[in-house]
């Protein structure tokens, strides 16, 4: 028999939910994992996770970009207007630089987090509504997110935001799905 140990019997339905106090520690762990996974797979959960991850990534990106801006003399209007940062004492230079880096990192983190939250929420809602998971969800979510973020600047900006976010979303989807092609014929095929 080729499938030794294989049974065609239907799996038993899970036992009815017991109160938490009557569960074994293993059952409590499984129940807790189910609740966490269910929350992470919901649209609000996906949006929150994307927002938090975008916030962290944006903070790191903003901090990096702010640290790269000190290759030219910088004016310090916060301390003494009209004076270059290099003319200030070392402690003042550090104070101005850290404050500037914090401000840029915070601003970038908020923007990335907001965009991640909106995009993931919109994409999840579109996927739930359509009942399909394909590239159109990302394109639509990109268009709605980009257009929604730029709508205050007028219809042309909203259209440009829609097109650019949709194109960026399509490029990311193509890159992420590029590994889903056919397997190589042999070990030497690239």
* Strand content bin: under 5%
* Helix amount: 55-70%
Overall form = extended
Task: Tell me how many strands there are.
Answer: 0
Calculate the mean pLDDT score and round it: 82
Tally of contiguous helical segments: 5
Description of the molecule:
This protein has 190 residues and is mainly α. Among the domains are: 43-127, no CATH class; 134-177. The protein is 64% helix and 0% strand. It contains 5 helices and no strands. The protein has helices at residues 25-41, 43-67, 90-130, 135-150, 155-176. Helix 2 (43-67) runs antiparallel to helix 3, helix 3 crosses helix 4 (135-150) and helix 4 (135-150) runs antiparallel to helix 5. The longest helix has 41 residues, at 90-130. The mean pLDDT is 82.
How do the strands and helices of this protein lay out in sequence?
Elements: H1 25-41, H2 43-67, H3 90-130, H4 135-150, H5 155-176
Helix pairs in contact: 2-3, 3-4, 4-5
Task: Give the gist of this structure.
Component of the TIM22 complex. Its main location: mitochondrion. With 190 residues, the chain is mainly α.
């Amino acid at each position: 028999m080729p499938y030794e140990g294989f049974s065609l019997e239907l799996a038993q339905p899970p036992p009815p939910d017991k109160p938490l106090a009557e569960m074994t520690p293993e059952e409590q762990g499984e129940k807790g994992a189910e609740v966490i996974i269910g929350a992470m797979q919901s649209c609000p959960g996906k949006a929150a996770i994307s927002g938090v991850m975008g916030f962290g990534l944006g903070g790191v990106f903003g901090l990096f970009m702010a640290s790269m801006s000190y290759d030219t003399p910088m004016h310090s209007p916060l301390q003494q207007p009209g004076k270059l940062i290099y003319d200030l004492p070392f402690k003042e230079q550090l104070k101005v630089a850290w404050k500037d880096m914090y401000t840029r990192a915070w601003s970038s983190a908020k923007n990335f987090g907001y965009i991640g939250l909106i995009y993931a929420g919109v994409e999840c809602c579109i996927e739930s509504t359509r009942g399909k998971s394909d590239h159109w969800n990302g394109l639509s979510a990109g268009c709605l997110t980009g257009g929604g973020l730029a709508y205050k600047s007028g219809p042309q900006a909203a259209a440009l935001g829609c097109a650019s976010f949709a194109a960026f979303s399509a490029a990311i989807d193509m890159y992420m799905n590029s590994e889903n092609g056919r397997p190589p014929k042999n070990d030497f095929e690239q």
